[in-house]
Amino acid sequence: MIISILSIGDEILAGDTTNTNSTWISRELTKIGGKVDRQITCQDETKEIISSLSYLKNFNPNYIIITGGLGPTDDDITRKTLFDYFKVDEKFDKEYWDELVSRFKKLNIQIVESNKSQAIIPSIGEVLPNLIGSARGYCFLQEGTSFFSLPGVPKEMKEMMKHSILPRVAKNISNPIFRKLIRTTGVPESTLAEKIIKITESNHDCKIGYYPSVHGVDIRLSGTSMNKVEKLFIALQNIFGDISYADRKISIEEVIVKHLILKKKTISVAESCTGGLIMHRITNTSNSSKILNGGVITYSNESKTQFLGIPSNLILDKGAVSKQVAGEMSSRVMSKFGTDYGISVTGIAGPGGGTIEKPVGTVFISISSEHSTKVKKFMFGNDRERNKIRASQAALNMLRLSI
Fold it and tell me: Hey, is 137 helix, strand or coil?
């Protein structure tokens, strides 16, 4: 099955709006066993839309999903362009117009004349309902290809995809693609590939994709045989062990919160170079209040002494970025908040502040529990923002391995 996506909008091409629509559509189609072969973004211009549709049609797709340009303003030209492209006449849907007038009145909003364009329907083709907005979609069939046109507003597009398009596509997928995901962290892509090279060299049935990011490496397996994909997934998981932290699209902090709740354990955090990022990530997770008692951002040397009681002479002797200070931070924050685990991070995020002994990117992370304190040194890069993210990820991963 061939599926293509056409996004329409000058604001996307200009970089003013991130094209989250195509990402979401692709992900949802993937979940039901489909596959998007091509994605195109074009301007809000008639000739560009027609050119893009003609190009995609050359590949004989089963479906072309179009988003954008169905609003009531002058720059929303998708509707008229599609009607011309499919050679259909415009009809005014008075019943829907009356519905819009009533709906706007209940919201105490004055409906304007330009909204009448949203009551225009094609003489031939299907109208797709919009249950949460005013711009309806359309479906046209041409030489075996179904063209679905949807609004560009993400919330409206998603609802219409769920109700009108995904169920249709799912029914017509005769050879679904089965997929499995392995989320890893703390190990680079090249090392992961080396670990499984014997399996990958003999694998001829499934596709293996590596997708690195600042948080780690996702490994995606896909194939037409569910049994073969599952067999490969188990084999790789056995090799990776603790390197893998999830088999679906969830964050490491979600995994941690879930396990801490199950174990009825609590944590506290002392952050320096990450500036509260670890606590931010944890508190972005539902039910985090059950496991996070509190924390401190001790960014300066004085605050480390004032709020955590770390001896100033230790900081002077060993340095704020050191194994000794990191260990004191995690054990003292654990004691201060009465938690089962204490986490600490201290480092040089950059771009300045580094020395020959401790260059930019040097980070010490410590995890304390009732029985031990473990400190690990990391050497990240020169980019401040990436260093903060990588440090927070490494700290969360150390905690995961500890629990």
Answer: strand
